[in-house]
Amino acid sequence: MSTPASAPFTGHAEPAGSAARARGLTKAYGSGETTVLALDSVDVDIARGRFTAVMGPSGSGKSTLMHCLAGLDGVSAGQVWLGDTEITGLKERELTRLRRDRIGFMFQSFNLIPTLNALENITLPMDIAGQRPDAAWLEHVIDTLGLRDRLKHRPAQLSGGQQQRVACARALAARPELIFADEPTGNLDSRAGLEVLGFLRDAVDQLGQTVVMVTHDPGAAAHADLVLFLGDGRIVDEMASPTADAVLERMKRFDALHAVPPAPGSGPPGGPASGHGATEQS
Q1: 79 in a domain, yes or no?
Q2: Residue 222 belongs to some domain of the structure
């Protein structure tokens, strides 16, 4: 299933083409009888200049999909492109350079260097690459994320939300083609989480970025332009212009379809379904 572009975002010309795409993307772990098929012949297009959320139950393949699209994990079969560049088959050094120059990452753990201040953390990837930041763009990112008065603070002097804003700024600072965010609000309280989601939304609307976010939270997914739903390693549905209630209802239907009845004697009638203890390969 390919994902269509959603409504135009504010303040920018209509973006063209895909920021990333995959055809026949398959990822298997193990071999023989122990093989686990995390992704099963997935076709997907990530629209440029859009905010795409990826959802699914534990073990559905959502994080594996992100890792394969980002070149963090190899594929068992199929092809992946970043823009017009096919990344499947690239050597590790080429992949490292591509990720450094063209992709931004945000994770649950902020991965900030404790001995560096906020500004130094933001520019660290470019410093390592020997690149000079675009001064005007960097200033724009800093002001958009409200970090102007926190640039000289070290991570220990920042709140969780402020640390995540620094991580967001670091992902944006090199103006990457694509930003991948894996559960970026997972370690934040509700207020800080909403701030970060707002910043990602602004990165798309005001800065023209492309964002792909893996999440389990319907409220977080509601900030996206499009939600992709994964199940058993395949894209099983999509939702444009999502709301939290609509996403939650869709996930409830999905859970009902995949419910496993309890085995005889495994618990009282009407109790929790058993059989969900498999190791997650999300």
Answers
A1: no
A2: yes
Model pLDDT for residues 69-95, shown as the tens digit of each residue: 999 999 999 999 999 999 998 999 999
* pLDDT 10s digits, 199-234: 889 889 988 899 999 999 999 999 999 999 999 999
Overall domain count for the chain: 1
> Alpha-carbon distance 56 to 62, whole Å?
7
Burial class of 79 by CB neighbour count within 10 A (0 to 12, 13 to 18, 19+)? middle
Whole-angstrom distance, CA of residue 39 vs CA of residue 253: 21
Q: Classify residue 35: in a domain, yes or no.
A: no
Q: Can you tell me which residue has the tokens 């444009």?
A: 240
Tokens of 142: 């800093």
175: in domain: yes
CATH number of the domain that residue 236 is part of: 3.40.50.300
pTM, 2 dp: 0.78
